[in-house]
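Researcher: We're teaching a course module on how sequence relates to structure. For the next exercise, students receive a sequence and then see the predicted structure as tokens, so they can try to spot secondary structure elements on their own. Here is the exercise chain.
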Amino acid sequence: MTAPSVVDFYDRLAPFFIEDGGDACTAHVMRSQYYAVPVARLVELMGEAGFRQVRRIDQRFFQPLIAGFKPSPAFAAQEGQVPS
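Model: And here is the predicted structure for the students to work with:
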């Protein structure tokens, strides 16, 4: 049995077409990349970025919701922390 391949990132192209009401049409293509990371790693990254009380919320949406809050610089100063 072989392990399934892991996708490191998703590359997405989204075309948009703008009509001017006449015969002309302008096409724009927007490109974005989404990196696939496990939920546990995302929680770690949020902690490293200064978010507090990071938690996973299941069964509310079609996929897990990761929530946390990041204190304002004034709040962090009150607690003796250096704001990032």
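Model: If you want an answer key for the exercise: The mean pLDDT is 80. Strands lie at 9-19, 25-35, 52-57, 65-69.
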